[in-house]
Specification:
heterodimer, A: 114 residues, mainly beta, 4-stranded antiparallel β-sheet, 12 strands, 0% helix, globular, B: 115 residues, 7-stranded mixed β-sheet
């Protein structure tokens, strides 16, 4: 079974600085999808960024980018120019290309200090 | 555009009571899902429906039943609530299982407490 591990339960960053959240996963599949979701105190689950495993190029969405290392099964999220509104719980998630299940990591609580 | 709507947002039950959580989506998605979120454990899949008329068990289905009423609606039922089912429940939908990299869209969650 696939597993997703986020080894940092909590992280903090100063406003305007850069922070990287770690995620590793275990799978025997060669093609799959990876996602980062953000959950602010409002409890909404908001998609931040997604990556297809067959693409070597790292995905980027404005201030958010990933470092996808397929061989190492690592999928980290970098937030540049951190803003107060970035404070939230961040979840890494995995899905097979033909499957339905999103397998989530345990989450990383990000605090942004002014 | 409401997206995924869950009702109720909060509920307190006594052990042994039954309850149905409602979920509706207006994005014409084929697939729908129910998750529970517990502290320190991320979200875990309870049941899902790949398409109208089908349902399948996820990772933690015990104590729950589901109904895919039509393409828009997917309900989750607790027949005899137990304190271990105290959690936040999320409904989600997506275009179709395995369809490209389309993400799942989530509702705002239902906080359920069982005393």
């Amino acid at each position: 079974a696939q597993t997703v591990t986020q080894s940092q339960p909590e992280m903090s960053v100063q406003e305007a600085e850069t922070v990287t959240l770690s995620c590793t996963y275990d799978t025997s599949e060669s093609d799959y999808y990876l996602f980062w979701y953000k959950q602010p105190p409002s409890r909404q689950m908001i998609l931040v960024i997604r990556q297809e495993a067959y693409k070597q190029q790292n995905a980027t969405e404005n201030r958010f980018s990933v470092n996808f290392q397929k061989a190492a099964k690592s999928f980290s999220l970098k937030i540049s120019d951190s803003q107060l509104g970035d404070a939230a719980m961040y979840f890494c998630a995995y899905r097979e290309t033909s499957g339905s299940r999103l397998t989530f990591g345990e989450g990383t609580q990000l605090t942004v200090n002014p | 555009n409401a997206g995924v709507t869950q009702t109720p947002k909060f509920q307190v039950l006594k052990t042994g009571q039954s309850m149905t959580l409602q979920c509706a989506q207006d994005m014409n998605h084929n697939s729908m899902y129910w998750y529970r979120q517990d502290p320190g454990m991320g979200l875990r899949l309870i049941y899902y429906s790949a398409s109208e008329g089908t349902t399948d068990k996820g990772e933690v289905p015990n104590g729950y039943n589901v109904s895919r009423l039509n393409k828009r609606e997917f309900s989750l039922r607790l027949e005899s609530a137990a304190p271990s089912q105290t959690s936040v429940y999320f409904c989600a939908s997506s275009e179709a299982i395995g369809y490209r990299n389309q993400p799942q869209h989530f509702g705002d969650g239902t906080r359920l407490s069982i005393l």
